[in-house]
Amino acid sequence: MKELGTRSIILALYINSKEHLLSDVNSKSVCIIGAGIGGLGIATLLAKSGVRVTVFEKASRVGGRTASMIYKNHILDNGFHIMPFYKKSAIYEILKRTCITQRLELAKVEDISFYNNLGFHKYPRNINDLLKLSIIPFTSRIRLLSKILPLAFSSTGKTEKWDRISLTQITKNLDMNTKSFFDAICMLAFADVPEHISLGEFARTIIRANPIRGGTSEFGYPANGGYDMIAKVMAEYIEETTRTNSKVILNSPVKKIQVKNGQISGIVTSDERLIECNCVIISHPAYMAINELFDDGIFDRQFVDKVNRLNKTTSVVEVHFALSKKIDQRQVVFPVGDQFTAKGIFFISNITESVSPTGEHLILAGTPVSSQIASSKKDIKNISDKMKYDLQQIYPAFREALLWERPMAWQMVESVVKEPGLVWKQKMPHQIDQVRGLFFVGDSTISYGIGTDSAAHSALLCYPRIISYLKN
After folding, report:
1. What backbone torsions phi and psi does residue 96 show, to the nearest 5 degrees?
2. What CATH number did the domain enclosing 152 receive?
3. Residue 14 banded pLDDT, cuts 50, 70, 90
4. CATH classification at residue 385
5. What is the chain's mean pLDDT, rounded?
6. How confident is the model at residue 187 (pLDDT cuts 50, 70, 90)?
7. Boundary (domain end) residue, out of 168, 189, 216
8. Fewest C-beta atoms under 10 Å: which of 43, 63, 88, 328?
């Protein structure tokens, strides 16, 4: 009995010490700047762990660059975003860890094809598909396999040695058909051209898609329409976690981050309110935050110059088309060849009917452009007309079925994977020695992946660092 009593006391002391440690973490207040996928991703993980978080978002809605809108009863995305590798994605991992996957029904995006002057060619998902790839001659397929297979079976560590090498190093001597195939793959994976892609980042993407190693080529999109549905689900979870009293505050820009003696001490909002806290997480591009939110002298010049090198953006023109009838059963088509202006055609209503009213069908066509074109209404209209011509050539019924079109141009879009030499571990670190309690997440920080999934991957990598800081 005496031994049992001693064990009980020891157990009680252990439980109390553990509860004290957790309560110490729970008592901390963390301020997060930005309610995009990166900011909400880290906020969701922290709220799940019992940390009180407050997310400040300058816009009137969550989602960041994944915002959507209603236009003529259709749900239009700000660009077309997909959850890459579906249940293998970093976004899905966050949803899974926080047990909220059941809140978000996802539609699979798997009916993908290429199109050239010879017709449609199915997107390859494995080695057998590559051998049957009709878009390029058989001898070229063998050469293609000789390039792809070593990448698909490499380790992530090995790919880091290729991060300063352009993808063109393995494509420059290929025939035009095979080069066109690489162009289409880069548009699917990175929304960019091979010249801007690092061989290391391309290899990591091929590894994640390798089915022999547990990878997948399936993609996901919210079944209820609007990619920002993912952000909305995360925001709801954060505010429903009542034990932490966490919240997401919209229309609340942050004017300044205060630092005293090398330690975060608080933030100042645009209405001059001082909110004291000793931990701040920045989820919008690091080079913007470093230059806009801190007093001069907080960071040394060498560090600022290094961060400013990450200021790599691109521009795109995208046009939504509403049709009176379905002109294709496929979900995504990538036109291959210089004769096409449209580099991607997304049949969004074929992914999920929820985006359109009954009897109507929504298509989005897009292409990367220079910032000069994206700032000219005349040039945007010209690009839109050229993409309409592409659609008419591929689908003769397109013009007759067209109900309306809505051209958009996005300038200064954060580059998906930067460029060779500025990817993966060459991007902004999550934590720096110069300021304690300051963390960075998002696709401008150390992470890999496609678009918003890179931001989610960043949150997963940064999370244990933040927990360690809060405990200590």
Report:
1. -70, -45
2. 1.10.405
3. very low
4. 3.90.660.20
5. 91
6. confident
7. 216
8. 88
**418 or 105, which is more confident?**
105
328 and 223 part of one domain: yes
Q: Report the CATH number at residue 457.
A: 3.50.50.60
Whether residue 326 is found in the same domain as residue 404: yes
The answer to whether residues 223 and 339 belong to one domain is yes
Query: What pLDDT, in 10s, does the model give residues 309-321?
Result: 999 888 999 999 9
In this structure, the answer to whether residues 405 and 317 fall within a common structural domain is: yes
94 within a domain of the structure (yes/no): no
Q: Which two tokens stand for residue 452?
A: 């918003």
Look at residue 84 and tell me whether its pLDDT is greater than 50: yes
Say how many domains are in the chain.
3
Q: Which of 184, 216, 248 is the last residue of a domain?
A: 216
458 lies in some domain: yes
Q: Are residues 52 and 171 in the same domain?
A: no
**Within-domain flag for 280:** yes
Judging by beta carbons within 10 Å of its beta carbon (0-12, 13-18, 19+), is residue 282 exposed, middle or buried? buried
Q: Average pLDDT, stretch 116-145?
A: 89
For residues 332 and 380, state if they share a domain.
yes
Q: What pLDDT band is residue 451 in, cutting at 50, 70 and 90?
A: confident
- 399 and 327 assigned to the same domain: yes
Residues 222 and 351 in one domain: yes
Which residue segment(s) compose the domain that 84 sits in?
Answer: 68-89+106-121+217-227+313-414
pLDDT of residue 347: 98
* 438-466: average pLDDT: 95
Residue-level pLDDT at 33: 98
Instruction: Give the pLDDT band of residue 28 (cuts 50, 70, 90).
Output: low
3-state SS of the chain is CHHHHHHHHHHHHHHHHHHHHHHHHHCCEEEEECCCHHHHHHHHHHHHCCCEEEEECCCCCCCHHHCEEEECCEEEECCCCCECCHHHCHHHHHHHHCCCHHHCCEEEECCEEEEECCEEEECCCCHHHHHCCCCCCHHHHHHHHHHHHHHHCCCHHHHHHHCCCECHHHHCCCCHHHHHHHHHHHHHHHCCCHHHCEHHHHHHHHHHCCHHHCCCCCEEEECCCCCCHHHHHHHHHHHHCHHHCCEEECCCCEEEEEEECCEEEEEEECCCCEEECCCEEECCCHHHHHHHCCCCCCCCHHHHHHHHCCCCEEEEEEEEEEECCCCCCCCEEEECCCCCCCCEEEEHHHHCHHHCCCCCEEEEEEEEECHHHHCCHHHHHHHHHHHHHHHHHHCCCHHHHEEEEEEEEEEEEECCCCCCCCCHHHCECCECCCCECEEECCCCECCCCCCHHHHHHHHHHHHHHHHHHHHC
Determine the average pLDDT of the residues in 26-54.
92
